[in-house]
Write a structure and sequence with these properties.
The chain is mostly beta strands. Helices cover 5% and strands 48% of the residues.
Length: 290
């Protein structure tokens, strides 16, 4: 049995549940269309800083933010297009804007569909007409995030990259092991390349790693302290995986991206939608308690 409940907290919060499996997710459309919670048998799998969520002046740290139309940073937050300069902050604007709920369903699974459409503000920083449609679905121990990106222009191509930024709850990060399908990763600040052995030096104040040219369509995390395995799978548009964490914080982030930072300037692995066309992507998260 599936259910969708709506609570009016500071923001409208939709809870999608698989009652038979005792699993649920919370979705807050007004705060960037974000998933803020994922529970199985009353065990929370995501990290979310509630104080930042409740403060509209702050970017949310936690849940599963949506990254669009860039992933990562641009040099000086600037990109060039058709001889003009535009400014975009880290990870773009989709995670900061309110999304609109257009559909809900409890048939065969609990699902909710949200849209974000270009507007006067977005066109000042990203001069393209677009519509993003995200459908969140929960069934059993899995979440599916089905995405449609549409270029609404009849004449202009639309370049972009996109990604997700899941924050996973981990009270003991030293008990984590990562199976990421890439031979090596790079530290974006230093350019140093490291061999991938499934571990990171978590004694650093911050760990930031980018895995380029993924060789498989799934990443697995084993959390021995919780007896938990999380499988993150994705369609082939996702060519890059970013890892990020901060010392003494109970989270780590594994972020499927379609391109590396600065792709709007370099063109590297940039998606370039033809006028009037759409593309589809899927990310699935599955949790198993071992």
């Amino acid at each position: 049995m599936f259910a969708i409940a709506l609570q009016q907290k500071q923001y409208k919060t939709y809870t999608l549940s698989d009652l038979g499996f005792n699993s649920s997710i919370n979705v807050v459309p007004e705060r960037g269309g974000i998933i803020t919670s994922w529970c199985i048998n009353n065990q929370e799998l995501l990290y979310c800083d509630s104080k930042r969520l409740e403060n509209p002046e702050l970017i949310v740290r936690g849940g599963i933010p949506i990254l669009f139309p860039i992933c990562g940073n641009l040099p000086n937050n600037i990109y060039e297009y058709n001889g003009n300069s535009y400014s975009l902050q880290q990870h773009g604007f989709a995670r900061e804007l309110p999304w609109e709920v257009i559909e809900k369903s409890t048939q065969d699974r609990a699902s909710i569909t949200l849209v974000l459409t270009s507007n006067r503000f977005t066109k000042t920083v990203y001069p393209f007409d677009f519509q993003l449609t995200f459908t969140y679905q929960i069934k059993g121990n899995s979440i599916e995030i089905f995405q449609v990106y549409t270029n609404l222009s009849n004449t202009q191509r639309m370049p972009f990259s996109t990604g997700l930024h899941p924050y996973f709850f981990a009270p003991n990060k030293h008990q984590l092991h990562f199976d990421i399908p890439s031979m090596q990763y790079v530290e974006p600040k230093t350019g140093i390349v490291h061999y991938n052995n499934g571990k990171f030096d978590l004694n650093q104040d911050e760990v930031n790693a980018i895995f380029e040219k993924l060789t498989g369509l799934a990443t697995t995390v084993y959390d021995r302290s919780r007896g938990l395995k999380i499988l993150l799978s994705y369609t082939s548009s996702y060519s890059t995986m970013a890892f990020w964490t901060v010392k003494n914080e109970e989270f780590y982030c594994l972020e499927p991206w379609t391109a590396t930072p600065n792709s709007l300037n370099t063109g590297s692995r940039l998606i370039d939608l033809e006028p009037g066309s759409s593309c589809e992507m899927l990310v699935r998260l599955t949790a198993t308690f071992l």
